[in-house]
Amino acid sequence: MYIQTEAAGPVMMRSPLGVRIIDRVCCKCFNKDTWYRGYVLLLTFLCYCCYHLSRKPVSVVKTVFHQNCSALPDYNSSDPTACDWAPFNHPNYQELEGSLDYAYLFAYAVGMFFAGHIAERVDLRLFLSLGMMLSGITTALFGMGRLWNIHLLSYYLAVQIFGGLAQSSGWPAVVTCVGNWFGKGHRGLVFGVWNSHTSIGNILGSLIAGVWVSTNWGLSFIVPGLIILAMGLVVFLLLPTDPKEVGCSPPDHHGQHIVDHRTHGETGYEDVSTHQVVPVVGEEIAPLMTDSDEDVEERKRPPREAEAISFFGALRIPGVVEFSLCLFFSKLVAYTFLYWLPSYIKYVAHYDATQSADLSTMFDVGGIAGGIAAGVVSDYSGKSASTCAVMLAFSAPMMFIYQTYGNVSLRVNIVLLLMTGFLVNGPYALITTAVSADLGTHKSLKVKHSLIQALSACLQKVLR
């Protein structure tokens, strides 16, 4: 049985304005499918880099909210908290700083509960671009508290809550977009490389925030906020979220890949598994072999629109609960390092705020290699669960080793951070990308792959 795709012409009008311009200028010199797949992969990569870039500054700036003022140069005040930023200048400052994380993560979890379901019911490009712009605004507002001299804890908590809700728009949208464009072949490798956006975003966020953390920490938030705001506008103008929008062939989700040759001036469809072109008879596709009665009846039925799936419906898909539990523990560690690693390095290894921010990026550098390695192993072995289990099993003792020997020297700290990031972020990257996309296009589902949105959100919700 073959799947007929829509002609390129009528669909093209639904693509963003910028995409239509790019299609006329660039796609004439390259294979259209290859060009757009690389283009979408790069654009979504930059997109989620910006999401994590805007999340990272709070962990860097925590190191200057409350510090040892007497150790600072040119400090002349008798008040030991004179250099601290109220309301974090109290003895319970760690609890107050932790409340910023609680507010953000709780709002993020609540937002994730609805984000996947909303994304599959609205225009994906508009949903993603609006979420990025709102994320940029909330990130910048946190930094404006420094410029406006705001010392109310309620202000920073409110900004974190709205920021968490806005940031929850990102993951279901981007993983669905990439899942729309890439099939099962080498999905682990593709997503492993692509998912390095998380670590690269953290690295860039740490470096950008570190530039101003000791002088004007407000800019540590404002600059990343402006970057993701601008990227949201780019997404609105330039991101095609589905191959049908630009007349490209759909990916192989279940072992067959149909190429619409009408976009190349021919009349037929190609089954890539056999490399045979199937002629078109009227509006029907003439099969090369006689179908069963069930196939004939299925072809006679009108095509169904992509159906939404409930939270509990997603839980019933084989593997969702198991991978959600695995992701729970992996992401617990990853987010602990995300929000507290610079502070831990500063107070344990006794580096200044900028050096601590820079050194913390080694965890994310290791995470890049771990995500790619996990994807490659999963592709060649076909055993995603085993890959995750082995890496998580080794990550537990590695964290104890880092706690014990991390402050011995700078070199030892770097090596242990690289190894810890490799083992922790490998399963994290694999589950949130390739596994989510595989489950969202599971053969037991009789609907289109918009379910990836719900599956991605479901995995994120269960782990919280």
Gist?
The protein has 464 residues and is mostly helical. The protein has helices at residues 8-12, 17-25, 32-55, 57-65, 93-119, 124-147, 153-167, 170-181, 187-194, 196-212, 218-238, 293-300, 311-315, 320-349, 353-381, 384-405, 410-440, 451-463; strands spanning 258-260, 268-271, 276-281, 284-285.
How would you characterize this protein structure?
The longest helix has 31 residues. A four-stranded antiparallel β-sheet has the order 1-2-3-4, with no helix packed on it. The protein has 18 helices and four strands. Helix 17 packs across helix 18. A hairpin with a 7-residue loop joins strand 1 and strand 2. The N terminus is likely disordered. Helix content is 67%, strand content 3%. By secondary structure, it is mainly alpha-helical. It starts with 7 loop residues before the first helix and ends with a helix.
